[in-house]
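Posted in: Protein Modeling Q&A

I'm a second-year student putting together a small comparison for a lab meeting, and my supervisor asked me to include a predicted structure for Retrotransposon Copia-like N-terminal domain-containing protein. I've never done this before, so apologies if this is the wrong subforum. The sequence is pasted below exactly as I got it from our records. If anyone can share the structure token output, I'd also love a short note on what stands out.
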Amino acid sequence: MGSIGEQSSDGTTTGDRQNLGIGVSNPGNAGIAGIDYNHPLFLSPADVSGIQIISFQLTGIENYSIRFRPMRVALLGRNKLGIVDGICKKESFPEFMWNHWERVNAIVLSWIMNSVTKGLLGGIMYASGAQAVWEELAERFNKVDGSRTFNLHKEIATLAQGTLSISVYYSRLKDLWEEFESLVPAPGCDCAKSREFMIYLQKLKLYQFLMGLNDSYAQARSHILMRSLVPNVNQAYAIIVCDESQKAIASTSGVLGANLSV
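Accepted answer (user: helix_wrangler)
Welcome! Here is the predicted structure, written out as tokens:
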């Protein structure tokens, strides 16, 4: 076994290679000495070009904010976010890894291209850098439109359950909340005022959820609001779902009873 200072054929020492997260040989990573799975240039068998890593595509300004978060999460989960945010630039790695970096960059670039509609490919088709394309898409489509913010606020305020089930109604409301928060993010500091504001926002969501419920849930709604310790919106949702289930059971029992009496 070589010592920490022993040089390999690529000119790096064993210590250098350990610091880079490089371990044993792994043919899946460009034929260079193997890269540990925690290394940002590690490629798993599933990390190939041509796949779509999120379930929908960018169509324009109207859905950039909705697409951005799942795309970012998908890249972070694959430890490839550094390729697009500039942390893992080619020059930050030893020269013997540059060819492998190019391969990783090309794969990430293909993921980004596969996450936009064909009509938007024209401006990025011939780009060679994943970071450049990522930043260009942000410049073109990350526009906080005041009219969109207004319409989202209006949709949240006027959304009603109607013929929807509780779960579908709540899911739609959550989607609107998340899109609104992506456009108008809440303060992220840990100060007392910020914590108070976050508590206020949670209460606001609870009231918005309860306001949109059908009148058949008026009793359950009153029960929630009269509690000495008012639940958060997720807890209120669970209470209303239980009430919905009880109503369904009662309705089924009534139908069965009527049929038996005939």
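A couple of things worth pointing out for your meeting: Residues 108 and 130 are 6 Å apart (CA to CA). The radius of gyration is 26 Å.
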